[in-house]
C-alpha cells in the first residue's frame, strides 16, 4: 500500500516559501524524487495562508519511506527546516487498494 504524507511547513516572513525554493534550487527535491519508491514530492502554496507551504510526499510502501527517513537526505532537510525556523503539521494517508468508488468517479471530470 502506498503511503502519502502531507506536511504543512509554516514560518514567518515568507520562510516556508524560501525553504521550498532552496529545497528545489539545491537539487534536494530532484534527489528525493529519484529515490527508489518515491511516487510524488511536490510543494503547493495555500491561497489563504501565505506563511505555509504544503508538501505532498508519496511513497510506494512503508519500507521505501523508512529507507528515505534513514538516508543522508534527511539531514539536509532538517538543516533547512532549522535554517528557516519552520514548524510542521503532518497528515498521513495509506492508499485504498480498491481505488476510487464508482459513485465518486461520477464527480471527476477528465
List keywords for this structure.
28% strand, globular, four-stranded antiparallel β-sheet, 5 helices, alpha+beta, single chain, 4 strands, 110 residues
Model description:
This protein is of the alpha+beta class and 110 residues long. It contains 5 helices and 4 strands. It has helices spanning 15-25, 28-33, 62-69, 73-83, 102-105, and strands at 3-10, 38-44, 52-59, 87-94. A hairpin with a 7-residue loop joins strand 2 and strand 3 (52-59). The longest helix has 11 residues, at 15-25. The mean pLDDT is 95.
Uncertain spans: none
User: How many beta-strand runs?
Assistant: 4
Placed side by side, the strands forming the largest sheet appear as 2-3-1-4
Return the structural class: alpha+beta
Topology (SSEs and partners):
Layout lengths: L2 E8 L4 H11 L2 H6 L4 E7 L7 E8 L2 H8 L3 H11 L3 E8 L7 H4 L5
Antiparallel strand pairs: 1-3, 1-4, 2-3
Amino acid at each position: 500500500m502506498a503511503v502519502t504524507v502531507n506536511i504543512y511547513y509554516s514560518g514567518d516572513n515568507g520562510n516556508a516559501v524560501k525553504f521550498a525554493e532552496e529545497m528545489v534550487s539545491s537539487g534536494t527535491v530532484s534527489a528525493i524524487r529519484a529515490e527508489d519508491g518515491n511516487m510524488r514530492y511536490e510543494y503547493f502554496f495555500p491561497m489563504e495562508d501565505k506563511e505555509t507551504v504544503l508538501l505532498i510526499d508519496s511513497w510506494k510502501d512503508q519500507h521505501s519511506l523508512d529507507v528515505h527517513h534513514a538516508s543522508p537526505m534527511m539531514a539536509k532537510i532538517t538543516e533547512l527546516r532549522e535554517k528557516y525556523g519552520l514548524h510542521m503539521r503532518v497528515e498521513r494517508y495509506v492508499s485504498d487498494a480498491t481505488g476510487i468508488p464508482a459513485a465518486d468517479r461520477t464527480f471527476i471530470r477528465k
